[in-house]
Amino acid sequence: MRLIVLGGGESGVGTAILGKKKGYDVFVSDYGKIKESYKKVLINNGIAWEEGQHSEDLILNADVVMKSPGIPEKKSLIVLKLIEKGIPVISEIEFAAPFTNATTIGITGSNGKTTTTMLTHHLLKSAGLNVGLGGNIGKSFAWQVADGDFESYVLELSSFQLDGIINYKPHIAIITNISPDHLDRYDYKYENYIASKFRITMNQTEDDFLIYDADDEAITEWLKNNKTKAQLIPFSLTKTLENGAFIKNKNMEINIINEEEFTMETETMALEGKHNMKNAMAATSVAKLMKIRNATIRESLSNFQGVEHRLEKVLKIQNVQYINDSKATNVNATFFALDSMNTPTVWIVGGVDKGNDYNELMSLVREKVKAIICLGVDNRKIIDVFGNVVDMMVEVSNMEDAVKTAQHLTEKGDTVLLSPACASFDLFENYEDRGNQFKNAVKHL
Predict the structure, then answer these.
(1) Is 316 annotated as a binding residue?
(2) What is the CATH number of the domain that holds 133?
(3) Which residues does residue 153 pair with via DSSP β-bridges, in sequence order?
(4) What digits encode the pLDDT tens for the residues 135-174?
(5) Which pTM does this prediction carry?
(6) Could you tell me the residue range of the domain that residue 242 belongs to?
(7) Same-domain pairing of 77 and 212
(8) Which of 77, 151, 308, 417 is most deeply buried (CB count within 10 A of its CB)?
(9) Is residue 250 located within the same domain as residue 332?
(10) How far is CA 397 from the centre of its chain?
(11) Is 112 annotated as a binding residue?
């Protein structure tokens, strides 16, 4: 069996290693450059590879192809040719899942999936479970399956990874929320993107569970018009649910049929903000289904450290709090960030726009934002929408200037929030690089 891996990054190299171990004839092809560290791994494992091109004669004879999530299938000529030939093009998750008997918890959503994934992993690991963390985050799932395997995995799954599944099903699936994102990959049709997210439940059976946000319009609408066999476990900030998770009188309550009821005061949790209450309800529902004791869950929820670049408090300087929310790469994520601000805010925003509608943020900007710093190559849209709404708007071209300008515009008791609502590729390598530059600039004030 010939396995072709397109993309020599973390998921590609992990898949290649698992494929080699399982007796496949493996070839890795990357149209760009492969990192030196990954090249060494491929060479040490005797896996053939190429970079800077896709050689058709070496690829089109595949039995199966694993495509890295970053490669858009509608724009990649080699992928189009493979599909035309009827060769299955799948994701890493689809390839690796049959080689493990582990229980998998799959988590998707437009926002909150990283926090929910990390928190779920933290809850299970703190309870002593032998649990791995993978998917869109950390070490490749396939690589972990090849190297030693865990009894269960918490997997963060992007819509691109879900597009490449055929038979994979998580025992427990979570959809944190759905808002327009990556529409450039879905013919600019929101319904295509929604359908992509719901692939997470398409193979689930009556023995499986789907945990979802019952306050989310796109999710509830889909569930009204489509069927899943999975047992449904909703969570909500606004409704009291007979079966599910909800907030009542500053308490988080979770009632799941056949499980002991769980309650905890929201003020004793480490995570703050409404959106994080949702992430906590989703993760705790998993912990209950995995039979973890209430006392262990409470302890884990109160000591969770949070996720880097997601509403991360960096420093307080002259009584001004600096917050790094570089992971907010769409409007919905920034909405949550602005919604959780309790003091006058200087907002650093901008980058590569993915078809954003900034008007969704208008009421929050009027209420909370005193000044806007635009940090992007093209800021026209932001200036057009908010130019007359805030007293001060400044354009800068690097992070150091953004942070210094922010410092000049603040008074005691204010907050400086980096929450770009955009991708980062115009001025930075990725959102981590953007967040790290912000933290560095703050530390050098």
Answers:
(1) no
(2) 3.40.1190.10
(3) 104, 132
(4) 988 899 999 999 987 999 999 999 889 999 999 999 999 9
(5) 0.80
(6) 95-303
(7) no
(8) 417
(9) no
(10) 27
(11) yes
